[in-house]
Amino acid sequence: MELLKQRIRQDGIVKGNDVLKVDSFLNHQMDIALFEEIGKEFQRRFANCGVNKILTIEASGIGIACITAQFFHCPVIFAKKTQTKNIDGEVFATQVESFTHGRIYQVIVSKKFLGPQDKVLIVDDFLANGAALEGLIDIVAQSGAQLAGAGIVIEKAFQPGGDRLRAQGVRVESLARVKAMSEENGVEFAD
Predict the structure, then answer these.
(1) What count of other Cβ atoms lies within 10 Å of the Cβ of residue 56?
(2) What local confidence, expressed as pLDDT, does residue 102 receive?
(3) Of 73, 123, 125, 191, which residue is most buried, by most CB within 10 angstroms?
(4) pLDDT at 99 over 70
(5) Which amino acids are annotated as binding site, given as ranges?
(6) For the chain, first and last CA: distance in Å?
């Protein structure tokens, strides 16, 4: 998606060789016009998949998932990183390791929102090592729902997550695949 790549080149900040800060438009301050284009592109790519639920993980994926859901005319479910008093009844649970935060979370989704009748598109802002995506895929499997695939805004293609998931048969559609990055040279895209 050329618009997204241009925005990454213009406003993204590379820290070291593995951190890409896009907080000015994607995951802290959110550019809703860009999100609308992202949502349209995910809908175009997964148009004939029968998606009736979008699943993400808190917090950075929620905004993107919500805008995307408008184009699928379906609800968004987000996996919570903590059990709260608001979640009553049984839950699907799995553990995920956050690349960004360097810690392991148990994430949960209420069983009343996901089941065998659902066709799920997972949406997230980044794919690096794939731990968050694997956790969400596990929750979909626990629920008996069918996985349509995963829509990823930015994939760090130099890290193993995307290739490993594709090798397992998961349809992963990334809008910008980063081949390499450095503070000196910026971002190089894979395609």
Answers:
(1) 26
(2) 75
(3) 123
(4) no
(5) 20, 27, 128-132, 156
(6) 10
Instruction: Provide CATH code, domain 2-189.
Output: 3.40.50.2020
What percentage of the chain reaches a pLDDT higher than 70?
95
Binding residue ranges for 5-phospho-alpha-D-ribose 1-diphosphate = 128-132
SS3 63: helix
122 CB burial (10 A radius; 0-12, 13-18, 19+): buried
Whether 184 contacts 161, CB under 8 Å? no
Written as six digits, the tokens of 90 are 């049984």
Neighbours of 45 (CB within 10 A): 16
What is the length of the chain? Answer: 191
- Phi, psi angle pair for 85, to nearest 5°: -65, -20
Query: Which residues are known binding-site members for xanthine?
Result: 20, 27, 156
Residue 63, pLDDT > 70, answer yes
Take residue 106 and report the two structure tokens written for it. 């148990």
Structure tokens at 138: 């596990």
> pLDDT category, 189, cuts 50, 70, 90?
very high
Q: What is the Cα–Cα distance from 177 to 145, expressed in whole angstroms? A: 28
Do residues 122 and 146 make contact, with C-beta atoms less than 8 angstroms apart?
no
Q: Where are the domains of the chain?
A: 2-189
Is the model's pTM score more than 0.85? Answer: yes
